[in-house]
Amino acid sequence: MSEHKYLGLKAELLTEGVWATPDALKGVGSEYKEQNHGLFGWDFEDHVGISLPDDFLLPDGTVVQFRKKSRSPYRVIVDKDDLILTNGKENICEVKWFKRPAYYSLQTSSHNAMVKIGQIGGQDCLFFCYQNYCSHFSKKEECLFCNLVSTSKTYNSVLKKKDTEDIGEVAKAAFAEGMVKHVLLTGGCFNHEKEIGLVGEILKSIRKHASLDRVPGTILPSPAKSIDDVKKYYDTGIKAIGFSMEIWDKKLYEAICPGKSKSVSHEAFINSIRCAVKIFGAGNVYGVFVMGLEPKQTFLEGVREITELGANVVPFVWSPNPGSKLQGHRPPTSAWFVETVLEAADIVDDANIPPGTKNHCYKCDGNSLLHDALRLKGVE
Ligand code: SF4
């Protein structure tokens, strides 16, 4: 077996999509964890009215995001009571859906469905989107890969406004079940001061309800304007912070993220990351990218420069998803992703940055390959 077998398979599944037979989908949404579209939709096709798994497990523990594509050669079928992934010609391996968290069926004390407030990403990451809105859409300057508005309209599956007490109650219930190790908090782009205030209230509530001193996990806010702002985020009690730079190459960043690049320059992101490393510590800061929309060379330059600052990198594998301006386009080949991410893993490993996996790990991430590539090097 190739040492990259499951990394390559995950890259294939993320770029070619996957489908499943009705038999295989039995129990998704009741026994097994379903997609709830907390922020973006990552499938190649919308699937209103059909519960699909959020993600699934390969035999070596690799977590793969389920990206629906009904014409994909990859299909999950049932064979003798097991879920088997096939490529249409042969069976590849057994896969497993994740158990549906018990709290998905509970309500908060203000009678809101908990699943509409926070969802589990992968195996162990509790995700809260505190703002399902982004100002760039109203000016038609949204990032070309983003389908936030269309996802929200298509599925209307989560609460747009989430009460901070409700968020705390969900965190309590999710941590009490034992599978959650980290949280991930993010929102679209909005007023900076308001965002810091809101994040402070949310973290206060999570710490109170889940009885945590500091919260293991990551916040992905709009870029902080100053070191004082970064300190304010640190003081909320979250352990790690990340900034979504999206694209490293400056010109491509401006073209692909027309609105965002007007409000936050490439340099501003770097300054935020530099400040954040000083406050949160090396390894507890992330540069977040969309991988597959720029050349390998510029992407790897970004990985090199970010790690030289003492930060880690999370590159999500681009999906040309419905409702985004790039709907219907094709991502690079899975071989490109594997080759590029293996080089990125070498750069990160050589930089000797603390891995930060207490705040974000390969089990959180069905849609990134870097954690998996680092795991092959023994970094977990
Ligand atoms: S900043 Fe870009 S990626 Fe983020 S929500 Fe707005 S349009 Fe989408």
Summarize the structure.
The protein has 380 residues and is an alpha/beta fold. It contains eleven helices and 14 strands. The chain has two domains: 93 residues, no CATH class; 274 residues, TIM Barrel (Alpha-Beta Barrel).
Task: Walk me through the structure.
The chain has 380 residues and is of the alpha/beta class. It has two domains: 5-97, no CATH class; 102-375, TIM Barrel, CATH 3.20.20.70. It is built from eleven helices and 14 strands. A hairpin with a 4-residue loop joins strand 5 and strand 6. Helix 3 (164-177) packs across helix 4 (192-210). The chain is globular, with a radius of gyration of 19 Å. Bound molecules: iron/sulfur cluster. The site of iron/sulfur cluster (SF4) has 10 residues, from loops.
What's the CATH class of the largest domain, please?
Alpha Beta
Largest sheet: spatial strand order: 8-9-10-11-12-13-14
Which hetero compounds are present in the coordinates? iron/sulfur cluster
Which oligomeric form is depicted?
single chain
CATH superfamily of the largest domain: Aldolase class I
Beginning-to-end CA distance, first to last residue: 22 Å
Helix content: 25-40%
Poorly predicted runs: none
Series of secondary-structure elements, N-terminal to C-terminal: HEEEEEEEEEHHEHEHEHHHEHEHH
How many helices does DSSP assign? 11
The proportion of residues in beta strands is: 15-25%
**Under the CATH scheme, which architecture of the largest domain would be assigned?**
Alpha-Beta Barrel
Give the averaged pLDDT, no decimals: 94
Number of self-contained structural domains? 2
